[in-house]
Design a protein that fits this description.
mainly alpha
Amino acid sequence: MNLITPGLLSLILLVFLAGCAHTGADRMNLHQAELRLDLAERYLIEGEPRPALEQLQQVQNVSPDNPRLYFNMGLAHTSMEDWDRAAREFEKALELNPDYGEAWNNLGQVRQAQGRLQEARQAYEKALELEGYMTPEFAYYNLATIFQEKGETEKALEYAVRSIEKNRRFVPGYELAGSLYHELDLYDEALRIYGQGAQARLDNTGLGLMYAEELVRAGRISEAKVWFERIIEQNDDSEEAHTARDYLEALR
């Protein structure tokens, strides 16, 4: 079976779009604009915001009323920590589509980065009000970090747990909830939540290591050893595997 890798997809799109460039931006059709959006999103995934912006700016001439365009421009400026410009782009996306849950969530992240916590909270809550918002775990998690930043640990924990309830495979939610249980000296609950996460994401060595370390603290050494050995088997060269070896050596 032949697979198109992300790099090959980018190359195909670049070749296609280069052929379109000779017709001029004024003659670019909507299909070509969508291809440029796809390419821009690939650049964003690969951590390259500037070439993403180059593609998006060309799309703007053809499809200036596309919320997806401004959302991606917001992501690019967020990546470059240009918070003011990022906020304007997300706000433009929301002006065009007030039910754009992802844009509300990302606007919240920008406001949080700017230290405007009340506006950030309002944006996250707005995202959660939308029935069509597909990734509420992110907004719940972000709300949790706001309360954590404000020192309201119990409230932060409430939202961290909600993020997990919305997505049982949401790694950041487990990590944050476990650390918050620790802050509250609720070690049995920390053990439970890390165990739940490790079982839900057997592919995640980070969560597995957190659970194993918690098992050691609880005195459940034989169970911890099983998890340390599992981590080593999963990825022998990972940082987590090196830590697991250190634990196993100390536990002999």
